[in-house]
Amino acid sequence: MQIKIEADQLWNELDKLATFSDTPAPSVTRILFTDNDVKARDYFKSLAREAGFEVREDPIGNIFVRFSGSEKNLPAVGTGSHCDAVPYAGRYDGTVGVFAGLEALRALKKSGFSPKRPLEVVFFTSEEPTRFGLGCIGSRLMSGAMDLNRLGQLRDKDGKSVDEARKSAGYDGDLTQVKLPEKYYDYFVELHIEQGPVLEREKKQIGAVTAIAAPASFRIQITGEGGHAGGVLMPARRDALVPCAILTQELERLARESSSPDSVGTVGVVKVHPGAINSIPANVTMEMDIRDTQLKTRDEIVEKILAKARQLEKERNVKMEIETINSDPPAISNETILGSIEASCTETSLSHMRLVSRAYHDSLFMARIAPMGMIFIPSRGGVSHRADEFSSKEEIAQGAEILARTMARLSLQA
Ligand code: GLV
Ligand code: MN
Ligand code: MN
User: Fold this and answer.
1) How confident is the model at residue 1 (pLDDT cuts 50, 70, 90)?
2) Could you report the per-residue pLDDT of 170-215, keeping only the tens digit for each?
3) Atom 2 in ligand 1: which residue has the minimum CA distance?
4) Which of 84, 134, 125 is nearest to 287 (CA)?
5) Exposed / middle / buried, residue 72 (Cβ in 10 Å: 0-12, 13-18, 19+)
6) For the chain, how many structural domains are there in total?
7) For the chain, N or C: smaller number of CB within 10 Å?
8) Which range marks the domain in which residue 309 is found?
9) Do the beta carbons of residue 262 and residue 293 sit within 8 Å?
10) Nearest CA to ligand 1 atom 5
11) Is the CB–ligand 1 distance for residue 128 below 6 Å?
12) pLDDT tens across 307-344, in order?
């Protein structure tokens, strides 16, 4: 099949998308339902309509772009990713999967390809946990992995609910409609940058992802007692920050010493109250992220770190309120999809290898309702969630081509 990916056009679109940012270039910060998120959404929808595709949005803001062929009522082959960006991020995380997804559909249409199963690109709402503390809000709801009670409990730093935030971005309607009907997708395949060093190190152009590591995250509110940094002598202190520091170090030790090389633990948020150099910390909120490809080793670390928190509560005479934000199982890719990715690489003479995804993606939740697979392209230096994140124009175009070919194959699959 002849497919021509418009590499320059796709690159220029990603260039323009990167201008919708709350922080200066080269960084990108795009938080759910802010003005820049809405601008990114409008830009994507206008390109999809220009290309002649049907566009629909659901009440939480997931955007669906569809290319139907001969059998409109068959379950679709889905792709897609996210365009929200963590603070001071780069410009490729998620965005490549959304905009190259659109380019894959455009290229297939231009080539004269007629899909059997419809092809669909999804712009998922809030894969990043930045605003509401929980990642993959759109895909969790679409797959039924989260119920509306839980959604209703989420608040941003200003106390706003998801419902208030979505309405301010123009999204309304019955949220029960977000969950997809049974058998909506026959296959789901997401294109993403690797966000790790493996493809670059192994000199491979394409990665076929075999599994997505299991993520868990926790919020711990530590309450001690504040006071004057000069006036309160050490034996009388109930500093809330010191147990936070000990827990952070303990998490690092547990992840480093784990029997699994894939164990990782991070404390990425610490808020100290009152936050003055001459006041003893009275309250601390810390958020930790723990992941592994093996659920068993991840859960062992979780158990140990929470036990350590309980021990510190007693030893340090502070209160620890522990909230599980999420604790998700890993996802395993589907062999038919992996085979289609690999056949597409062979067809185009691109080098490829199998690897796991240590980052999570909306595909973690799509895997609950459809056979799932992912395509990775190299990330320079393995860097991500940083302004210097980089994948080249050529690598992005190669990813788009493999995505287009994989979707075409899956669309025609018996
Ligand atoms: C997604 O960005 C993740 O944290 O893996
Ligand atoms: Mn990310
Ligand atoms: Mn991402």
Assistant:
1) confident
2) 999 999 999 999 999 999 999 999 999 999 999 999 999 999 999 9
3) 128
4) 134
5) exposed
6) 2
7) C
8) 214-327
9) yes
10) 359
11) yes
12) 999 999 999 999 999 999 999 999 999 999 999 999 99
